[in-house]
Design a protein that fits this description.
Helices cover about 20% and strands about 35% of the residues. The protein has about 150 residues and is an alpha+beta fold.
Length: about 150
């Protein structure tokens, strides 16, 4: 094989490999970014935006211009969701999702999918909201903290 053919085949193989690798990475993700609709007392999200094929512990980042921080919605099983305010209880930084938990990039606090502290320095859990399915929508009630 001459040099030109070798380079051509090598470049083609790399391009195919990169395309396949990016498809694998895209298939591993279960997060979605959603713009929630502000309605009386909370945020409404059409259920058709939540993909049941994402499986348990999929998460969705819900944003709206009227919110200071996004809300992370974890799909815990077929019928249940948890909604967590993505503001760190330690010093107020915006949290990031890492696997099945929320992590603070400022000081390393971590919270599980129910909002409980799993790693300090935070000592208080996250603000959580009641979530219910109303017709064809998922409703996050912003009036109160979930008990």
């Amino acid at each position: 094989m001459n040099r030109r053919n070798f380079l051509r085949q090598s470049c083609a193989s790399c391009a195919l490999g990169l395309a396949g690798f990016s498809a694998v990475l895209a298939g591993c993700t279960s997060k979605r970014y959603i713009i929630g609709n502000m309605v009386k007392d909370g945020i409404s999200i059409p259920l058709n935006l939540l993909n049941p094929a994402d499986g348990p512990m999929a998460y969705y980042i819900v944003r709206n211009d009227k919110l200071l921080f996004p809300i992370c919605v974890f799909h815990t099983d077929k019928k249940n969701y948890t909604a967590l305010w993505m503001q760190c209880a330690h010093q107020g930084a915006e949290l990031q999702v890492s696997g099945n938990e929320l992590v603070c990039p400022a000081h390393g606090s971590a919270f599980d999918s129910s909002g409980k502290v799993t790693n300090g320095p935070a000592v208080n859990g996250l603000r959580t909201f009641p979530v219910s399915v109303l017709g064809d929508d998922l409703f996050i009630d912003l009036r109160k903290r979930k008990a």
